[in-house]
Structure formats: structure tokens, C-alpha cells
Amino acid sequence: MIDASHATGLMFAAFALTAWSSLSFFIRAAMKDAPLLQTTATTTTCNALLMIPVAWFFLSTPAFRPPRPGTYLLLALIAFFMIALSRLTYYFAIRRIGPSRSIPVAANTPVVTALLAALFLGEPLSPRIFLGLALFVAGVATVVRAGPARGAGGAATRRDVILGYLAAGATTFIWSSTGVMMKAAGKDMPPLAVAAMAIWLGAPMAWAIAWRFEPGLSPGRIPAGNWRWVLCAALCQTVAIPSYSLAMNHTLAVNVSSITSLQPLLVILLARFFLRDAENVNWRLTLGAGMTVAGTLTVVL
User: What is the DSSP string of 125-194?
Assistant: First the structure.
């Protein structure tokens, strides 16, 4: 008979998987005819506001007081890279090449994280990590050969598509790097507290980037019909983070990683049913996504 705590952990992992997969489609709709940087900052701000009741319910005040002052600097770095910068590169990739091509590249971070953890945290390398990396690289190459999405935010030129894949790759590296930072910060604070503070610090940073590179900020620049998708995207982000943390508390990390690593296949399945023509879902895309997932599972299992 399955353990109740284990079952609860799997359930929360499934919530996180669903929320992160849905996010890519909601943010795609939110960015239609809207400025990228302002939409990113607005969504992050809504996410930050929604995280306030979540933090109040799950955490106590001492959880936000790390014993070492250096942790605050680490939180600021996580906020800038994981929240302000990586969401920008991730959303740019989604706009250029669509969710079903961005996710297989961007979402499979355990392989790169394992390599970075070995370099900077002294964690052991193993043949499985190199095998996982080989599968991941082969999967990405197959996804690229699947051809572009037909409705990926107006990606009309080869240059736009290349920039989209480069942005997705940059997202992978940023998420992997900050994942190592979050692991270090998690030694002083609960993971959910680290995530909440990173989001709260990252929101004004996202606005600073938007203010610097997108003059003329105004709520009217985001079409009225897009605001529901902005809120849906922010809600998905807010659901995913505590769900992931709770899953980690109830079952083994390998179980959680195995479930959330299925995101590329779930995204392609959703695209197949709801955006088949726009996303141009074909056998190469599905095979490539499957290979990236296999690479991740090779590392985490």
C-alpha cells in the first residue's frame, strides 16, 4: 500500500508540473501585441503579490531571517538572475519559437545543474551525468530540426528563430546556475522562503529593466484582453513554487524531479490538442522532447 505522505508528495509534484506547463501557454497569450519587458515585469509583480498570502500561510517570520548576512547577497543574486533575467529570456524564447520548442530546451536543467554542482559544490560526477548530457544535446538538436512553429509570436526570419533558441539555452544555464545558488541559500532558510524573497526582490528589478530598455511604460500598452492571461500566468507561477516545495517535503527529491521533468512532453501534448497548427507539432519535435526528458531522468534516477 502506498504511503500517504509519499502519495501527497506525488500529488503536489503533479500540481507543479501542471502549473509550469500551463504557464508557457498563458504567458504566450499575455504577450500577444504587448511589450515583452513590461509584460514580464507586470506578471512578476502579480506573482509577488500572490506570494504574500502563500508565505503568510506556510511560513513564520523567523523563516525570513537567515543566520548569515551573506545569504542576503545570495538572495539578491537569485532575484536578479532567476526572476528578473531568466523570465525575460524564457518569455522571449516562448514569443519567438513557441512553448513546445522552448520547454524542451529550457526546462531540463538537472543535467546542467549536476555539472555546475560538481564544479562549485564538490558533488560527484558520474557516467550517468555525461550520458544524460549526451541525450539532452541530441534531443535539443532534434527539436531544432523539427522546424519552426507557425504562430510563434511572429518569428518570420531565421535570425528570430535562432535568437529564440539561444534565449531558451540561456534560460537553461541561468536556471541551473541559480538552482545551485538556491541550494546554498536553502541551508540557511526554508526553500519556500528563498523563493518568496527572490520573487519579491526580483519584481522591482524586472521593472528597472523594463524602465531602462522600454521607454514609455503604461498599463495601456498591454491590451485589455491580455490581462486575464497575465493573471493566469502569475497564478501558475504562484501555485508551482509552493507545490514544488511541499512535494519535496513529502517524498524523495528524485520522485519530484522525475515528475516535473515530464514538462516538455506535457507541453507538447497540450499543444497537440489546443494549438496543433500554430505550434507545428510533428514527430521530430516529440522525439526530441522525449530525448531531453530521457536525459533528465538519466541524471535524477
Answer: P-HHHHHHHHHHHHHHHHHHTT---TTSTT--SHHHHHHHHHHHHHHHHHHHHHHHHHHHHTTTS-HHHH
Determine the Cα–Cα distance for residues 91 and 151; give it in Å rounded to an integer: 15
Q: How many CA atoms lie within 13 A of 144 on its CB side?
A: 17
Query: Which residues 6+ apart lie within 8 Å of 52 measured at CB?
Result: none
Q: Tell me how long the chain is.
A: 301
Q: Which of 281, 228, 293 is nearest to 17 (CA)?
A: 293
Q: What is the Cα–Cα distance from 125 to 36, expressed in whole angstroms?
A: 38
Please name which of 77, 152, 113, 139 lies closest in space to residue 299, comparing C-alpha atoms: 113
Helices 227-250 and 36-58 meet at what angle, rounded to 10?
A: 40
Low pLDDT (below 70) residues in the chain = 1-2, 117, 120-121, 123, 149-156, 252-254, 274-279, 300-301
